[in-house]
Amino acid sequence: MQETILSVGIDIGTSTTQLIFSRLTIENLASNYTVPRISIVDKEVVYRSGIYFTPLKSQTEIDAGKVKEIIRREYEKAGRKPEDLQTGAVIITGETARKQNANSVLENLSDMAGDFVVATAGPDLESVLSAKGAGSDRISEEKREVVANIDIGGGTSNIAFFQKGVLKGTSCLDIGGRLIKIENGKISYLFPSIQKLAANHGIQIQVGDAANESTLYRVCEYMAEQLAMALYIEEPDSFHRELYTNAGTPLKRQPEIQAVTFSGGVADCMLHEEGDMFRYGDIGILLARAVKNCTAFQKVKIYPAAETIRATVVGAGTHTTDVSGSTISYAREKLPIKNIPVLKVSEEEEQNPQLFAEAIEKGLTLYESEGELEQLAIAFSGQYHTSFQQIQELAALLIRGADRVIKGSYPLILVIENDIAKVLGNALNVLLERKKDVICIDGIHAQSGDYIDIGEPVADGHVVPVVTKTLIFNS
User: Fold this and answer.
1) Residue 62, SS3?
2) How far is residue 267 from each of residues 124, 144, 309, 444, measured CA to CA in Å?
3) How far is CA 14 from the centre of its chain?
4) pTM of the shown model
5) Does the keyword Lyase apply (predicted)?
6) Helix H or strand E segment including 75
């Protein structure tokens, strides 16, 4: 029997604020007398809001009241109320995530979105969200190629790349369309790193200067070249490392990137260049032209993104409901838990003990907020450790890779596809001397970028209900 639910996605970004409503059709695909397996069988965006400049009180503070008014007005236009919605996400991204009152804005909006994912997406996680919204992971899997997505927004360019559909890395650069703002024909705002980039190439610009189109286009050309350097299509120059957001790290050189997709507001401008170059009060259209004309990107394949300006918001929320396997291990007093982001270890990494532990250790950095590790779940297939001895070895690897989680205040949450959770949970409890809460469930498939809810035990404690909130058009 089919059921239709309504989802909302709300994205508050550096340049723009927008939302979508989606209709999702779910159906139990399991046969009678078996454990229910609920899947999305159809999905359709039924309403797309206008695209608004994100209202700010200052360079460091979001205007929470105006943001909420935008969202309320769009609900009214769509004929929807918060109680009509069953799932969704509110995500604050880019430079906006670093505003002083970002978290209070999210809390202020949560009453309009119901019990949804409400998250401040750091630059690495945002890279994954936008890339999946753009469909780059699917292109990589279908083409069996290494595909990178560059989401060029107002304040940052978020990059994620995939090999055969598996996430291989992320990075983020301070390159975006609103890092130079134009007002009354003059430069009204200039991001320091972009000013330095220009000076590095002999171009002296400053706030108050006339907005000369040819001069600013040259700056945009250098910005586009830096994006190519981030993918190693061009060899990085001596200035390149200064452009990484929050002094972040570059991508790995391997595997070599074969194809690129572009998303974000600047990518949308690549499709609509005509007209006044400064009509948005920034250099977004000039940057779009520079990226489009950059000869370096002609060295790789360019695939069209499934979404451009709406890539992140389209990645804001569907859910599938499932139940765990019946052989699980959990700390009952820690349940229920909601809105836990998922770190997925690839099967390739899982098969190599050294890579497995390193993948977890490195992956944890994607889930930091201001240097603090957030609560998360570690997901993997579990099909390569099935004997008793192998599971003991797996437990030791998990303890090594997830050391920061174990030393932190949150429980160690493991989500496994194969039926090994109870034995693995017992092994971890023994090794950790039961000094750490462990929640270990199986029978669940989840990917990086997903969020999960784990409910209170049912069926006499044998199973727990699990809601996997995944990216729309990605399941």
Assistant:
1) strand
2) 19, 24, 7, 35
3) 15
4) 0.68
5) yes
6) helix 64-78
